[in-house]
Write a structure and sequence with these properties.
Helices cover 31% and strands 19% of the residues. The protein is an alpha/beta fold.
Length: 551
């Protein structure tokens, strides 16, 4: 095989149309080889083996984008570590870079492209994954690179191994069962959690929508859901490894199960049965059309003491005309009905939403409708984005609004968002918070109350992974601060063991550290590879010495 040649799949290294060894050499049976002895060059160094020992190299893993993408990155890192590769944070020390991309916005893809250029300038081996290569397979800057499709993450070890050999491997296929697309790679694969206290489970992949601006559909495709029993089993395993917070993610959690005959509420009721007391579940993003079907049950679930009263429901625009051009399949009144219904039945619920400013057909009147919606509901969590035309989407072919107008509208939406403070009325309240993180400046613990508001907690003790009672003393735009009313109230959720250490492997009998895995040379494939390597070197030395002695 030519060095660097593109291989569409691992199996393509030897194609079906290639001659067999018997066919290749059948015409040469009467050829008698002639041996020519050459005087050895005594100054030559000992011959080097041209093989590599798989599973002994260092891998740098970088992920951009949503929680689904982060879960994929954790799974890929876990499989590589389980095989023996060392996962490193220092990119300059790595032998291969695994770059897991996001295609939602142009800036995310720009960061991804720049990282590829940096890796190439450092002469690193590169494997790319995620939504960019899956949705844009013919993109110029990806040519010649190894690619792992979004449903092929369980084959990352094979791809990395072939890439280290100099091959370019591209795996894009969708996983199917009985002709039907499924959720993807198995949920019980090993992973390395970025946060040992938080387990991210993708309950489905793809969606049922055809939004005109969205590139993710090109990558994730049609809806494919995991069976409830597989999701529940993964959740139970996670709690046994010290996880205290469970995130459910997908491109649209509300559409879960429509392809396999189950519903999101049915899954959630099964999950709350196995969530230990004191642990919490956070539900991911859902589009309005599908959550409308389950509002009564969803209100009951969001009131459950082990489920955050939080829901992310993107509206994108406050104009029916714009929503129609976006093909969002709901109206502004539909969205308002979802919000009003849940606010009435779920005390203290937090509704997060998204806006796109400057969609090609958006008029000034349309945009004013969006601002009016924000003024009415004063969403505490609001993700404001200016429109980016993503290649290959219908919206990219529409006549664009002038860039200065788009920026002006985006700025106006941001300014409106800054005019209200959603947490001021909570000052003085006593709340229970579950602590799972450290603040960016590492001066506070970060916890969340029942409404999934962010609460900064003083570092007056060892509270990580524990729930404790606090009093809110200060409110900012995106957070609250507190004082601890009773340190003795801090406790880990009942029956949940201490979490795995950072970098430990999930799904391997209580966790195996990355450092331990790096030194494990008893893996059968590693032993075989080492034996073959040593044998080849010994044979070369033997024949070289024999030639010298004969001479």
């Amino acid at each position: 095989m030519v060095h660097g040649e593109d291989i569409e799949d691992i199996e393509d290294i030897i194609g079906q149309g290639d001659e067999s060894p018997d066919e290749r050499y059948s015409s040469r049976k009467l050829v008698i080889p002639k041996y020519k002895r050459l005087r050895p060059k005594l100054s030559e160094a000992a011959p080097e083996a041209d093989s590599i020992i798989p599973g002994t190299q260092r891998v740098y893993v970088k992920t951009w984008g949503c929680s689904h993408n982060n879960s994929d990155g954790e799974y890929m890192a876990g499989q590589l570590a389980a095989y023996g590769y060392q996962i490193v944070d220092a990119k300059q020390d790595a032998d291969v870079w695994l770059l897991n991309s996001c295609t939602v916005k142009n800036p995310a893809e720009d960061h991804f492209r720049n990282e590829i250029k940096l890796a190439q300038s450092l002469d690193k081996k590169i494997v790319v994954a995620g939504c960019v290569p899956q949705g844009e397979r013919k993109t110029g800057y990806l040519q010649g690179l190894s690619v792992i499709g979004v449903q092929q993450i369980d084959r990352v070890v094979e791809v990395v191994e072939e890439t280290l050999k100099g091959h370019s491997v591209r795996l894009f296929g969708a996983k199917k069962s009985d002709g039907r697309k499924i959720g993807g790679a198995r949920l019980d694969l090993p992973k390395i959690r970025k946060n040992p206290l938080i387990e991210i489970i993708a309950i489905n992949t793809g969606c049922l929508n055809q939004c005109t601006y969205c590139k993710t559909k090109h990558a994730r495709g049609e809806l494919g859901s995991y069976p409830p029993e597989e999701i529940v089993a993964r959740a139970e395993q996670s709690f046994q490894e010290g996880v205290v917070e469970l995130w459910l993610t997908s491109e649209d959690t509300g559409a879960y199960g429509k392809d396999i005959g189950v519903t999101l509420p049915q899954l959630l009721w099964k999950l709350v049965e196995v969530i230990p007391e004191g642990c919490m579940l956070r539900l991911g993003m859902t589009n309005p059309p599908y959550i409308l079907e389950h509002l009564e049950e969803m209100a009951k679930i969001l009131n459950h003491p082990r489920v955050y009263s939080f829901l992310h429901v993107p509206v994108q625009a406050g104009s029916d005309n714009v929503l129609f051009e976006m093909k969002r399949e709901y109206t502004v009144e539909d969205f308002k009905h979802v919000v009003d219904f849940l606010k009435q039945r779920v005390p203290g619920i937090t509704i997060a939403t998204d806006l796109i400013c400057g969609f090609p057909t958006e008029t000034e009147e349309d945009f004013e409708g969006t601002l009016k919606l924000v003024e009415e509901y004063k969403f505490p969590s609001l993700f404001i984005n200016q429109f980016f035309p993503r290649p290959g989407t219908p919206a990219a072919k529409m006549q664009r609004i002038p860039a200065d107008v788009v920026k002006k509208r985006t700025k106006k939406a941001h300014e409106l968002f800054q005019t209200y403070f959603p947490y001021n009325h909570k000052i003085g309240e006593t709340q229970d918070v579950l602590i799972t993180e450290l603040s960016t400046d590492r001066k506070y613990y970060v916890g969340h109350n029942k409404s999934y508001d962010q609460v900064l907690v003083p570092m007056d003790g060892d509270f990580m992974g524990k729930k404790l009672t606090v009093e809110i003393t200060e409110a900012g735009k995106h957070f609250m601060k507190c004082k601890i009313t009773d340190i003795s109230s801090a406790s880990r959720p009942g029956g949940v063991p201490e979490p795995l250490k950072l970098g430990e492997l999930s799904g391997c009998g209580g966790g195996i550290s990355n450092e331990t895995v790096k030194n494990r040379m008893y893996h059968p494939l590693l032993v075989v590879s080492l034996f073959v390597l040593i044998t080849s070197v010994m044979l070369r030395l033997y024949y070289s010495l024999s030639s010298v002695i004969t001479r």
